[in-house]
Each structure stands twice: as structure tokens, then as C-alpha cells.
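Appendix C reproduces, verbatim, an entry submitted by the partner laboratory led by Prof. M.T., so that reviewers can inspect both the input and the predicted structure.
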Amino acid sequence: NENKRMDLKTVLLLIANIFLAVMFLFSGISKLLPVEAFELQLVSEGIFNWSTATLFSRLLIGFELSLGIMLLIRYRMKFVTYPVSFLILFAFTIYLIINLIVNGNSSNCGCFGDLMPMTTVESIFKNLFLMGIIVVLFFKDKGKALTNDYLPAAIFVLITAVLFIIFPRAEQVKPVNTPVFTEVVTADTSAKINIKDSLNIDSGKNLNSNKEATHSDESKTVTKPVLSTVYPKTESIYSVFNSLPEIDLNSGIKIVSVLSLDCDHCMEAAKKINNLRSTETINDIYFLFFGSEEQVPEFFLNAGGTFNYQIITPQRFFPLLKKSPPRVSLLANGNMVVDTEGENAKIDELIMKYKQLIILY
């Protein structure tokens, strides 16, 4: 019976060791899918710029994968692998706690990349659980371990070299983010329009207070300004995506959406934008997608309609974001009138401003 208990204890400790190794391997691999998403996480936290993030991300992933392999092959468990595993998890946990205090409970801390999103709190508890396993293994695991002095360095160099070959550092296309335009109404005008009572929107009061108006029995006549006098034409951060000859993102009123094709929040944003079609005739919406061409038909089917779109590379997509998709921008002659991003993007407010602009101009 005592031998059976010892065998069971040995098996449980071995399973715990393998589980720990798999978690480190999974953590490293998940950050590669795609690696640009993990790089964005580093940049958005203000820790790195895009140039250093592309280097650090591969070094960190290589370290995690190396640690997972060292756990599997049982390299100096008591004196190297377990202590290093504990310290790296402890450092990550301290960082997550600080981030939780400063920024709140993020919907995805990036620990498992975009493959398995985890909140900051979930990741903290995950790390504490793994640290507990390491403590138990440190004191209870009596198994034999490899002791070659050069093995850890050889594993790290080999894995990191492979990462740089398979996932080479690509130059990120970093747009110059233009500030949101502050509207200044000028006296320059070009035409008069009739605004019927059917144009009953929240902006009506502002419209009447900012524009010279005369009253008649049937309608209100207001002076309609020229778009270029309020929003002088400028180059937007999306100018590079004027790939279709009929689309000029720096001219007129446009809605540009930066969306991932496998993002639920992006789908919700697309649905809200598509709802505009029930009340407006719209030909000035443009989608910039991250994903594959095969995903587009299903995305549009679920969104309720199709739009002009372009699939862009990760090196162009992720630098357009401050933290996470969707990003939706309202442009007037290339000027950023409204810019909203993330899972709490204020799409409804952007749509309201869009309706105001198309009435005014």
C-alpha cells in the first residue's frame, strides 16, 4: 500500500510538472497568433515603441517556450527551473496588479494573446494558482533532473533564432494620428436649404443657434455653409488606403472602421453602422479589415450588409489602434471629427454626429 501511495504521489507530481510546462508553452505560442497583437499590447501600455516591441516580444516568447521545454525535460528543477518559473510568474503578477490599480480590469491582459483572452483579474488568479503548483513541486518533487550547464542557453538561442526566422521583424507602418478636429463655423456660405419638421434630431437646437435663420410658415430656411470652409481638406491617417479609384477618404464625409474579422465587438460596431441604411442613403463607409478574404462574406452576412473594404497586413492594421479594435472614425475632408475605439467604442455618438454633418453640408 505504501508503494502504491508513493507511486500515486509520483504520478501526480509528474502530471503537475507536465501541466506547468504546457502552460508556459501555450502562453508563448498563443502570443504568436498573431505576434503583432501582442506587440500592440506592449506599445499600448507605454512600455515600448513599435521598434523595441518587435524585438522584446520575440525574446520574451522565446524565454517562455524555453522554460516550458526545460520543465518537460526536467532540467535542474530544484535549483534553476522551478525558481525561475516562480520568479517570472511573480514578476508578471506584480505588473498585473499595478495595471489593475492604474487601468482597471482589462478585458484581455495579453497573457495568452488573442487566442484565449483573459481579464487582468483572471490572469492574476491563474498566476497565483501556477505559483502554488511550483511551490508544491519545489518541496515534493524528488525526481531526477538533467544538469548540463550549457543546455538552457542552447535551448533559448535555438528557439529564439527559429522565432526570428519564422516570424521576422517586419517594419510597422506607423500613422501620424491627427487630433480630433474642433469645429469652427465660418461666415462663408454658399446656398440656402429648407429644413422641414421631419428633420427632428437632437442637433436641431445647435443648428439653429449656430446658423443664421429666418422663419416661414412651412419651413425654416437656414444658410448652408460649404464643407471646405469649416473642414479644410487635409491628409488623414487613412490616406494610404485610397486603393479604389472611386474612393477618396480625404474628400467629403466618410466613416472609416478598423475591424478584425474574428472580433465580436467589431461585429457589433458593423451592425450599428449598417443600421444607418434604414434611415440614410450611404455610400461613404469604408472598412479596413484584419483577417482573410474567406472570412469577409460571413462577416458581412452577420453584419446585415456589405461595404467597401480592404484587407490590410498586420503591420498596417495594429499600428492604427491605440489598444484594441474596433476603431471607428468620422472624417470630414480628411479631418478627424469623431474617433472612438475599443469594446466601449461610442458608435451611437459617432452616428449622431454623422447625421448632423450630412444635414448641414
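Residues 238 and 249 are 7 Å apart (CA to CA). Additional entries are available on request from the coordinating office.
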